[in-house]
């Protein structure tokens, strides 16, 4: 018993004759009749009573047909699923991003993606870049945004966006009077710093060293959003990602450009396998939203 025989049997039941079933299936009438007889031999009972060349479903055949309908509905679903996987990959997509992009670019890209693919589930994980990198390497995430300090061996990497860094200032801070912040302005100033492994912090510290200045580090954090929150509370000044800072500016945080320019550099990460169409579309949408904000 195989699927082709079952489909031939369904056609005969649906259209009433082997000749009509043959026409619909694109088979010869003898081939249809042979498929039905082969199926009967394999299941051990007659599906049709044959009288003067006419086929009438037997009692056993009618019972069997109910099961056939349910089974073929399942097969049709399998074929549909297979076509979707072939064209788009799995029925869900797993996204991860660093905190800086978790409240702006990534949610907007996911919203656009869901409008185009309402039946595709999306999972979003927000974590530190190093954690996300390991998730990508373990094939636990389909696409991710991280800072550029992550180890890229064994995964696929593409540049994402470079965002010019700025200096975040508490409300009423004396440096607000300046329209441009320079290294000497930050000497001995209470400072909220990014984590030591952050490449933006390393770039800033190299500039501070060149100018012979040293901000007074009060707190260290891996997240630009936490820098903004601490600065807003008056803990100190800090280097911040302007994209992340938007929501805090509405609450009173002040942003000033910094010179010499430094940047937050980010990457798109993918597992080391062929990307599905869904993943490619999500990547395009993330890039489109990033372009709007930068």
TrEMBL record:
InterPro entries: LysR_HTH_N (IPR000847), LysR_subst-bd (IPR005119), NocR_PBP2 (IPR037424), WH-like_DNA-bd_sf (IPR036388), WH_DNA-bd_sf (IPR036390). SUPFAM superfamilies: Periplasmic binding protein-like II (SSF53850), Winged helix' DNA-binding domain (SSF46785). One of its GO terms (molecular function) is sequence-specific DNA binding. Keywords: Activator, DNA-binding, Transcription, Transcription regulation. Pfam families: HTH_1, LysR_substrate. It comes from Hoeflea marina. This is LysR family transcriptional regulator. GO terms for biological process: lysine biosynthetic process via diaminopimelate; positive regulation of gene expression. Residues 1-58 form the HTH lysR-type domain. Belongs to the LysR transcriptional regulatory family.
């Amino acid at each position: 018993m195989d699927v082709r025989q079952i489909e031939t049997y369904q056609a005969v039941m649906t259209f009433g004759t082997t000749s009509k079933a043959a026409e619909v299936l694109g088979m010869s009438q003898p081939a249809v009749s042979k498929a039905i007889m082969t199926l009967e031999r394999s299941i051990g009972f007659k599906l049709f009573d044959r009288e003067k060349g006419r086929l009438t479903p037997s009692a056993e055949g009618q019972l069997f047909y109910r099961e056939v309908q349910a089974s073929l509905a399942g097969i049709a679903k399998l074929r549909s699923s297979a076509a979707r996987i072939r064209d788009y990959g799995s029925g869900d997509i797993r996204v991860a991003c660093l905190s800086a992009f978790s409240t702006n670019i990534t949610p907007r890209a996911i919203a656009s993606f869901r409008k185009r693919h309402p039946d595709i589930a999306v999972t979003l994980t927000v974590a530190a870049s190093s954690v996300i990198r390991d998730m990508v390497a373990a094939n636990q995430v389909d696409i991710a945004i991280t800072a550029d300090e992550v180890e890229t061996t064994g995964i696929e990497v593409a540049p994402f966006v470079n965002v010019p860094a700025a200096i975040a200032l508490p409300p009423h801070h004396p440096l607000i009077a300046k329209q441009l912040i320079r290294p000497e302005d930050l000497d001995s100033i209470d400072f909220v710093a990014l984590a030591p492994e952050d490449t933006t912090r390393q770039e800033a510290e190299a500039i501070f060293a060149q100018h012979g200045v040293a901000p007074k580090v009060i707190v260290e954090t891996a997240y630009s959003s936490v820098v903004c929150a601490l600065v807003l509370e008056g803990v100190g000044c800090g280097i911040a990602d302007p994209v992340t800072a938007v929501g805090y500016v509405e609450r009173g945080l002040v942003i000033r450009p910094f010179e010499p320019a430094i940047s937050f550099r980010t990457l798109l990460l993918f597992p080391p396998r062929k990307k599905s169409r869904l993943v490619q579309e999500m990547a395009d949408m993330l890039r489109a939203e990033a372009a709007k904000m930068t």
